[in-house]
Structure formats: C-alpha cells, structure tokens
Amino acid sequence: MKSMDMERFFSQQNIERYRKLRDVSTDEPERRLILKSLAAQTTQVDANRSLTVRVERRGDKYAWELRRDGHFHPVKFSVPIYVSEEAARAFGNNARMVHLARLAARQPRAK
C-alpha cells in the first residue's frame, strides 16, 4: 500500500471525523454527512485484491463483512449489532482501514 493512501486514512481530518461521530452532541444529519464522506474514500490493496465492505440486514439489525474480490468467505465480519446501515458501514470501513494498515505494516516475506 502506498504511504499516500495511509496518510489519507490516518489524516488529522479523518481522526476528527471519527471523534465527531462518537460525540453524543452530533445530530443525525451531520452523522450521515460524515459517514458519506468517509465511505467515499476507498483504496485497493492492488488491482486484483481489493477489499470491499458489504453491509447486510439480519433481522432488525445490520452487520458488515470485509470481502476480497474472487473469494467466497469474508476476510473479517461483525455480528448483527448495528441499528442502522450507515453505522454498520462506518464501522466496517474502520475495520477495513485497520486491516489494510496491518497488512501494510507486515514485513515482506523472503522468497
């Protein structure tokens, strides 16, 4: 992953957005705008191995899954605990960023 992509995800602006999401004084329309701006940021590990967040409704709650193109099983997933689709997508995007950061921090394997 390029360092420019990592800087975009862990920028001070995005950190402030996540703090604002967690703040109880933030109203619903403002949360939706924050979630849309965060969801608009996507990256790809490389051309063949992109990670996408899929949100599904299960009963009256929502759950997220991290999926890699061409693979049947999800890389990571949540239990259905989220009340709204936007909240599930925001937490899924956060898990995606953490997962990509962990992959980027790995030492390259010796071949």
Describe what you observe in this structure.
The protein has 111 residues and is α+β, with helices and mostly antiparallel strands. It has one domain (3-105). It has helices at residues 3-9, 12-22, 28-39, 85-105, and strands spanning 51-58, 61-68, 76-77. It has a three-stranded antiparallel β-sheet, covered by helices on one side. Strand 1 and strand 2 (61-68) form a beta hairpin.
Short synopsis of the structure:
The protein is an alpha+beta fold and 111 residues long. The protein has 4 helices and 3 strands, in the order H-H-H-E-E-E-H.
Key traits:
flat, single chain, 111 residues, three-stranded antiparallel sheet, 4 helices, 16% strand, 3 strands, alpha+beta
User: Numbering strands along the chain, what is their spatial order in the largest sheet?
Assistant: 1-2-3
> What fraction, in percent, of the residue positions are helical?
40-55%
Radius of gyration: 15 Å
In sequence order, what are the helices and strands, one letter per element?
HHHEEEH
Main sheet makeup: 3 strands, antiparallel
Low-confidence stretches: 42-48
Average pLDDT taken over every residue: 77
Shape: flat
- Specify the number of helices: 4
**Strand residue content:** 15-25%
Number of E strands = 3
Total domain units: 1
Structural classification: alpha+beta
> What gap, in angstroms, lies between the N and C termini?
19 Å
